[in-house]
Fold each of these.
Amino acid sequence: MTSATPFTGRELTNPPSDGISNLRFSNHSDHLLVSSWDKTVRLYDASENVLRGEFKHGGAVLDCCFHDDSSGFSASADNTVRRLVFNHEREDILGRHDAPVRCIDYSYATGQVITGSWDKTLKCWDPRGAGSETRSLVGTYTQPERVYSMSLVGNRLVVATAGRHVNVYDLRNMSQPEQRRESSLKYQTRCVRCYPNGTGYALSSVEGRVAMEFFDTSDVGQSKKYAFKCHRKTEGGRDIVYPVNAIAFHPVYGTFATGGCDGYVNVWDGNNKKRLYQYSKYPTSIAALSFSKDGRLLAVASSYTFEEGDKLHEPDAIFIRNVNEGEVKPKPKVNPNPAT
């Protein structure tokens, strides 16, 4: 295992050999699923630092998610959607898109797998029909542009596409979006993640900003939204801006971490509009982040995202850090006029 300082966390052995596209903790354990441009999906036990399984695909794997601790799903640049059966290291093709599949998620509310592709469609699948696309495909829904990121909370699905479009769906009625929006950020969307409490979503861009949005369309609801600058530095009087690739919400406190191409992970208190913590710099760009189900662990993908083109860079690595309460717990607001 490569040495790591206690400030970055412990480094997992047997990391992917090419860019890490995403990583996700299980909702049931400390198992971690990792997708990569090296055409693999890897299953780790993050607590034990053990590689439990590896699946090879026909193209780069752009996203992955769990079903439960015995199976998961993957989205590949070879246009396929696959179900992965961990104990048997078996994979079945659930279906296909007409272009690389960028995003995948499993809805516990509906029991469906949802995929978003660069073919400008969303598709919903019944995982029980794996092996037969005619049995598994539930519906296809045209999007205004290529799907870049998506996120689920309860029955709500938020889809962010090229062209700064954002569609909000109710999974119980996918015939048309519940809301059609435009990103309040001026530049290309990198990541969207729903608030754990279901009231809205955070969206990041290539231009070092994060927007905090709310589903409530009333004037009062929309008055709460705001955007802020992050992952920037001033050098020689010049503002250097880094893409914000990853957002992950803490499952207990509702605070969130962001990861940027500057190699930093910051933790934010969105309600109080404050940065709570900044971790020590990682070797290269932060490509993905995920908190464990109880928020005790944070998985960090340190993986160059080619924002400066093809160049020599640090090898891809996955760090698992123990999260201290002081790093993620909101600080109480101070009453400026305490009662005497």
Amino acid sequence: MLTDEFGREVTGVRISLTDRCNFDCVYCHNEGLGDTRGPMDPQDEEMNTDDVVRFLEVVTEFDIDSVKFTGGEPMLRSDLAEIIARTPDELAVSMTTNGTFLPGRAEELVEAGLERVNISQDALDPDAFARITKSGAYDAVLDGVEAALDAGLDPVKLNMVVFSHTAGYVPEMVDHVAANPGLQLQLIEYMPELTGNPEWAIDIERVHRWLADQARVVEQREMHDRTRYWIEADGECPSPAASDRTPDAVDGPAGMVEIVDPVENPTFCANCHRVRVTHDGYLKGCLNRNDDLRPMGEMSKGEIREAFREVVANRVPFYGEYMVRTADGSWEVNDEYVDTVASD
């Protein structure tokens, strides 16, 4: 297993299979690359099936234990089932999707080896959903969630980006997952440093505090040091004492709500164990950075192996190393660090 200079073992990879998407979400950062999306037809620069599988075969040599397929919209890849079926058995396989193509295909993907799925659903209101995603696919997403559950992808984790357009729908979404045992909710902090529009950002700590007041149990996850809140459907059960608020205290049906809050969060970065791969075959050590992309050449196993070692060796926490806090409390690029990297 490879470990970076900050002692973080790299245990998972996240692979963008395409930057194409049938949605045009206003908050999209396309795995940190910005709006690179082009025509909806397959593009020559996308890694082919063999490239993806060859990469996965190499990273198992380094004890990687999980892969998440993303996009864009990964289900626009006609070879998705083949990629999943050819993924080494050592790897747990999950996918992030908008869900619109799951009806009719979910069972095939499960048979191929898909184990978990995240589905983007930013509101339970069709009009709000349409404004956020610039699509009229609200019903198709609900059908996709149902198809995933029917295929055995239980629990289905719903992804909701929390910003000014969606914050008012958080309580309704929490109630929704609490009342439906097959669902979980992942609230993702809006990242203006990647998408612009800083006026859309909200105070994510307010969401934490609200959930803590509602929760039957509060749990801390090692991955990114994320906080999970277990909330009962009726909302009437008083929270236990702080010392009892552990997963073992859940004695009945409860919805799991998790917050992903990376912005200005050194602790989040310090607990990151993931390397990303762009749709066109570059390794990416951090979501927020595009100055450290490592090409994998012609995708031979030797080139993949060398590039993977390099990108792990050069990983840094985005906040606290690559970005540093200034005297007024804001964050800026650490020019000294960038100059050091450039001279290496």
Amino acid sequence: MAGEFLTIKEAASALGVSTRHARRLADAGSLSRVARGLIDRTSVDRYIQSQRQGRTRTWAEHTAWGAVALLSGLDADWLGVVQASRLRSTLRVITDVDDLLTRMRDRARVRTYDAHRAALPRLRDQIASTNLRLLGITDAVDESVDGYLAATDLDDTARSLGLRADAGGSVFLRTTGFAFDRVRDLVATTPAAALDAATSTDPRLRGVGRRTLAELLEAYR
């Protein structure tokens, strides 16, 4: 594969799946859309790699957010004692960033929308966004809106703000069913910022995110 971007048809061919299945993967956030009909090549490569890791399973939402907490030096008190202990042990032996990204993939589902400019300030007030300054990024990477929202609030938010589902839109909502009061606190941490950055379509941001995750894993051992 050449170039940074692939069409949906090219992505499907690379994955050995139907075009419809490739679109479903993009809708679920497993592949990263760059614009209407275009997929980030890196996300395709990453997905292929994750599928090759036969023993690697994605964590359930509450477990994935538990990992964010532990990597932040916080307690994941919603996990049972045994589960928390197992999660700590697993984090200590993960050495590959792609392995971590695969496990964390289901912490939220990414939905893409288009929105009127006037709706964006209200939307930013309702979502929880990661803090890129924690990664040393002080300038805006682009003009998109990217943040977390409780899954139960998605329909009302989209309706009240006139959001329109659009694969080429600049609004990225990461919906999760995990307790959103906890999510708001965890989104404000360095691991959460690094996870989002590591799957960005911006090469510079993606590199910073991956390096930060590697450092976090090393420090946790």
